[in-house]
Amino acid sequence: MTKAQAREKAKALVAQMTVEEKISQLVYNAPAIERLGIKEYNWWNEGAHGVARAGTATVFPHTIAMAATFDSDLIGKIADVISTEARAKYNKHVRFGDYDIFKGLTFWAPNINIFRDPRWGRGQETFGEDPFLSATLGTSFIKGIQGDGEFLKATACSKHYAGHSGPEKDRHGFDAKISLKDLYETYLPAFEKTVKAGVAGVMGAYNRTNGEPCCAHSYLLVDVLRGKWGFDGYVVSDCGALGDIWKYHKFAETKEEAAAVALKNTCDLNCGDTFPALVDAYEQDLITEEEVTAAAERLYTIRYLLGEFEEVRPYSDIGYDKLDCKEHRDLNLKAAQECIVLLKNDGFLPIAKNTDKKIAVVGPNALSYTALEGNYNGYASEYITVADGVRRVFTDAKITVERGSNYCSEHLNHWGGFQNMLSDGIAAASEADITILALGLDCSIEGEDTGYDDEYTACGDKKTLYLPATQQKLAEAVCDVCDNVVVVIMCGSSVDVGEKVRNHAKAILHAWYPGALGGLALSDILSGQVSPCGKLPVTIYDGKHDVPDFCDYNMTGRTYRFIDGEPLYPFGYGLSYTKFNYSDAKMVDESADRITISVDIENCGDMDGIEKTQIYAEYTDSRTTTPHWQLCAVRSTALKKGEKATVTIDIDRYWIKAVLDDGSRAEPDGKIVLHIGGHQPDALSERLTGTSCEAIGIK
Questions:
Q1: pLDDT tens by residue, 246-282
Q2: Smallest Cα–Cα separation from 685: which of 546, 564, 535?
Q3: Which CATH code of 2.60.120.260, 4.10.910.10, 3.40.50.1700, 3.60.21.10 fits the domain covering 325-555?
Q4: Which one, of 140, 39, 137, lies nearest residue 90 by Cα?
């Protein structure tokens, strides 16, 4: 069914509704209209890294971990599996008359906000700090979710539009003040690219941006989204955000006025309880029936495109046996392997798979399921924790496991026990030849508006870039008693384990929230069965780094593009067990819209591996400030040891334009140089890897 056909069918159906019936359909839990044969439908469904909150499903690495793969094709495959499992569930839900929340096909993912501040608790839900990477991986995710068939397989939704990345505790009344330059250079590109790629929905943010609530924003929604970009899909509010318009933003005086201003600015669907007030708003002449009709028609166009009203529903042949099946688990394991980033290796890794040494697995994430899941997660049929993975892979080793500490708060033991475990963790490490130190966080510490404010977190945002003090104490004590320590960080953000631990550790890996099979993937890397290939989608800062004020949305000093000084580990960085050599980089084609380059890549090490090629544009412009450099292309290439390949990569000129103070993009009036390699062209990446980038001057 074409979009035009779906729109005509939607218009015909909506035309049969009364104004009250139309209004009733503009809420996330839309009721049935029995006289028209319309079943109830719940628009609220989650699928950021697997079908969430609705029973068994494949739990893939969380979004920030997917970003660390730097592989858009892999992200597309993951999203295709998510929509396959969604259809498998939906087929049964409909058969058994279950139309409850989280049982539908309209997913409110991906989160393509920019992870501008390393303290933000919801950064784990994003594709990282870079606009290009967020746009590219977000687009692949959306295409995988929606499919390319006659009907939409499921629908994706780009969120949260726009200018949202904390602080969590203030989001319901916060005004993000953002210049046009920063908006169009950093905060809007991923939305523009995903809209033009055909995303079905866009979700507005809780906050105001430059004075107007995002879910009722005349400039962002009407002028830019609907006007400049031509978006004709549906806009949904974040959950409860329309209530914020009058309760906290004070942008309207009543619920009716808040509902009206959102609808008039083309918000079609309310996740919350504000839009029922549109009935009174209509009676008060605050809105017109034409405005209600337009919103209802956009929503029903989506429902028709999903095939809801077909006699034989599309994708009805997808069986329930697809849920967390072997094929999907194999892809999940591959994704988990590719997301893990090797930050440091003093030649200690890999560890021989047949070692008979004593291995201690110590730390609050040694046996944690929640550290595999992240947030917005489903429930896998099996979880393999760090300790489980070590046991499965190192079958000849003598393995002990201790938590050693809580995630955050440290207490003396009480009658229930399990509070003060420090001495147990130290004891296990003291008798081990090797200690795997599984540190980090979970969604109870960093996450979405948790409501908790303590010494470490403010409603899900971190107050420091270091580990919680109780874990730091454990880590330093373990380093005092064990020579061979491998640190595994599992969290969704930048965390510094401290100078003492960094210097003592033989190796450090960032495993993020790696999904249900994360522990097995980690041990596959520790044992050298797989060479690590993950790259950092965020900058890892020294805990002492002077990060700009959390509430300041100016990009000065933020992310790799505008950072002052050096971080601990740069965006785009990640070590391997093998070595890749780049040569003969050259431009092979050029047009007004794109540039095509080719480069030779050789695996000159001793292992098979996957290289994540990155191209950065360095450009100058006399009219404005420009980034240090801007990522503008990525490519994943698998090479056997000794293998050499010529790789051809297209670059969209959009990403090498200077963004002027009015938000417009212009050809830079200064030099343009493309840097091609396995990392940024910065001095720190070159020191850490011992390699440099190829360079091509194109202007």
A1: 999 999 999 999 999 999 999 999 999 999 999 999 9
A2: 535
A3: 3.40.50.1700
A4: 39
358 Cα distance to chain centroid: 37
Helix axis angle for 289-305 and 255-264, nearest 10°, is 60
Contact between 383 and 516 under an 8 Å Cβ cutoff? The reply is: yes
Close Cβ partners of 146 (under 8 Å, ≥ 6 residues apart): 83, 152, 153, 154, 155, 156, 198, 199, 200
Is 580-697 the same fold as 325-555? Answer: no
Which CATH architecture describes the domain 580-697? Sandwich (2.60)
The model's pLDDT over 198-254, given as tens digits with 9 standing for 90+, comes to: 999 999 999 999 999 999 999 999 999 999 999 999 999 999 999 999 999 999 999
Q: Find where tokens 């480069």 sit.
A: 599
What's the pTM value of the predicted model, to 2 decimals?
Answer: 0.98
SS3 annotation, 603-619: ECCCCCEEEEEEEEEEE
Q: How many CA atoms lie within 13 A of 13 on its CB side?
A: 24
Q: Which of 194, 102, 114, 207 is nearest to 146 (CA)?
A: 194
Phi, psi of 329 (to 5 degrees): -65, -35
Active site residues: 238
Contacts (Cβ under 8 Å, ≥6 apart) of 642: 602, 603, 604
Length of the chain: 699
